[in-house]
Write a structure and sequence with these properties.
6 strands; NADP; three-stranded parallel sheet; oxidoreductase; globular; DXP_reductoisomerase_C; EC 1.1.1.267; alpha/beta; DXP_reductoisomerase
Length: about 190
Amino acid sequence: SAFALVGHRNDDKMLELANRLHPQWVVMTDSAAAMRLQGKLPAGTRLESGMEAAIELSAAAETDMVMAAMVGSAGLPATLSAVRAGKRVGLANKECLVTAGKIFMQAARESGAEVVPVDSEHAAVHQCMHGHDYDSIRQVILTASGGPFRDRDPSTLHAVTPEEAVAHPNWDMGAKISVDSATMMN
């Protein structure tokens, strides 16, 4: 069961999750989204708004694990709070490491937090490294499919349209992730 669910502004999805998981707490970092949820949550689920509530619940004694899946660096304060509290953290985005990797990992070492990569590339590397001495690994090389432009002449890439960038040949990842993948920014 979930102790707390945290989201930003998608109150419809949060209501769906709250009805399925019956958490003790729901936090919406966007106050307008929190207002839209008032009176709609399951009995016994308390509602808070703002990042401070997310930060506090991430480090709460009742919290066993935090699944950090907020988009971009928005979830960094709450995730860092969980790490500093020594929690087990499932890291489903790269941004915490990209924007604050040194601080993040130092906090994990100091607190004894376990950081478990969930994002596809990180999880794959983590699984490959399992059982190996990390100090013996000098380099990790990640390959990419090349997305929708892998067979395209590089001299024509300047004319790529946004519609072409989101047309990934293998799966629908949503506009942002598709563009990040197509431009090799992920």
